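--- STAGE predict ---
source: upstream dedup step, 1 unique chain passed
mode: sequence only
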Amino acid sequence: MRVKTARAKKQISRIIKRVPVAEVDDLFQELEETVGQRIGTETSDNRPGKIIDGKKTIFTYQDLCNMFDIVSFTPERTVPLTFNGVKVQAYAGIEMHVPQCFKEICDQSGRELRNAGKRLAENRGYTDTIALGAGALEPER
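--- STAGE serialize ---
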């Protein structure tokens, strides 16, 4: 194995010595131009949410950062947040810097949870919404 490896290294070094440096630079520039053109056309056509051949292109976190303003907030509870397939984990009491859409989802879920607690308390006859949980007050009779 070592003999084959050494022989291959010698052959490669001979080939590299034969190729002029100017030609290699020209080849690399040409390659960069063609790859750059391909990348430029693909990204403009494959924007997130566009349907191509019956399949919807997916969103990335970077796409959301480009689409929405970045905001800072501290969630009141730990909750997973998902927007168009992009997931972010929010931890209670830890400040987050995320696109605006995630803050709106967190705020909306908090409002719905508070409203559900109020409705539950009203339906069971509790006078105070704090009465939910362990050691809850007895309903009024």
